[in-house]
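Sequence in, structure out. First:
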Amino acid sequence: MAPAELRRFVDRLGARVVADTDGRAWRDAGLGYLSMTDAELTARLLADQRLLRLPLIRVGNGVAAGPDDAAWKRLLAEVPT
């Protein structure tokens, strides 16, 4: 993922929402014990994209991270037909 695209998700949702804090990569890296700012966490997400909560969805100006059915439905409802 391009850095500018990841920053779009982080700016709108927050770094903690975009990070897969329940995933194996997060646990293996020992990140659960660290206190990080959004900037530090964003840098880690850019360096190791296995830490991202997938899927990352962008529809127009709207974004969603992870399996969030309500957010997906909201994004699809905003799509002009």
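Second:
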Amino acid sequence: MDEVAFLLRPRRGGWVIDGTVGMGGHAEAMLRTSGDDVRLLGTDLDPEALARSRTRLVAFGDRVVLARANFRELPRVAAAHGVTEASAILLDLGVSSYQLDESGRGFSFQADEPLDMRLDPERGRTAAALVNETDEDELARILFEHGGERFARRIARAIVRRRPLRTTGDLVAAVRAAVPRAAWPRRIHVATRTFQALRIVVNDETGALRQTLQEIPRLLAVGGRLGVISFHSGEDRIVKQAFRALAAAQFAALEPSPLTPGDDEVRANPRARSAKLRVLERTS
């Protein structure tokens, strides 16, 4: 939070774009540390998240504009709201604590919920449809490529054998049955990588990120900054490669390595432990 507010708040006014406004925490921090000449355009796919961020940001009045959209739609949404250039853009990838703990859409294995996993609960194919309709080879590829799951083949086989899967409990049971007990990770739940991989595919998060990183830098004003917070190595690799390519053409990374949370932040919010923040500045 502190790093985002310090590095991305505009010093000379203008628009801030938060492409994953979520609960409004980063948006609030950037607005509170900026002058009244800074406005914010926030987008999110989740209508409940937008409602909560709207309540949180109500004190900023007409400095805030919110829209329901995927961040891959930012060029269109910005144009629709008269935003021709931005002083700062933030993408905070993954899911929020609200979505994990309260949405009831199956993002977490902590409770037995419907296997949905859609960030937009009204569009797209659910995780249940994905695991019940995809063949074993493709399931194994998904789990390995998007989750880094070394037991991907065994888990895919268990899923196919146990179909139909309807709830998160069904999915956890399949993973537990497939992974040898001695191989269960110590620091994360044995189903973490499987849930991550399925969520990414259900929401086409990788495709959206690649597309956005190609298009969104054009919205930055000279001196404007783009910050991306990623939570796993696959996302960070995509961001790193995109920033490296942009650094050859009118952009520069602020730091050679990503910023990570300090010990105090991790103690206060353990889910932040894997976060990596990379920031790119438009130089000309």
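Remark: The mean pLDDT is 94.
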